Structures are given as structure tokens and as C-alpha cells.
Fold:
Amino acid sequence: MTNMATINDEDFERILRPHLKYLDSGEPVNPEADLKSLGLDSMSAVDLLFDFEDEFGIMIPDEEMVDSTFATAGALREVVNRAEAIS
Structure:
């Protein structure tokens, strides 16, 4: 599938934010933020990847389903960017 739009910061945060139950609504998502401490657990991480795939028509490879992908918002963004580049 070819992706026509680039995933911008606003779209990235819009998809990520609902999965971070401990992030205050007015607080921005810091790229260095520890996603687990913000409430991202293993089940919500899988849902989050599906949300990115569904919303942007990208395919995140199975080998990216590792703890380091979900360590920080910045790490996750890198994985999403790579998936976008190959989709």
C-alpha cells in the first residue's frame, strides 16, 4: 500500500495520546518521555501499533515489536517513520 501523506507531529501525538492514561491532557508528549510510566502497557502497545497502521496505511514489521520500540515517544516515532518510508 502506498502512503500519500507524511505523518506529522500532530497526527503522531493524536494517535499516541489516548494510549497514555497518565499523561495530563494539556501536557505535550516529550520525545524522551518513558511511555510505560505514562501508562502504555503491552496490550495498549499492540493496539497503538494497529492504530498507526490503520490510520496511515503503514505496515510495522514484526521485528519492531520489541521493548525498545516502546521505551520512549521518540523511539516509537523512529519506528513509525521507518514503516512509513517503506510503505
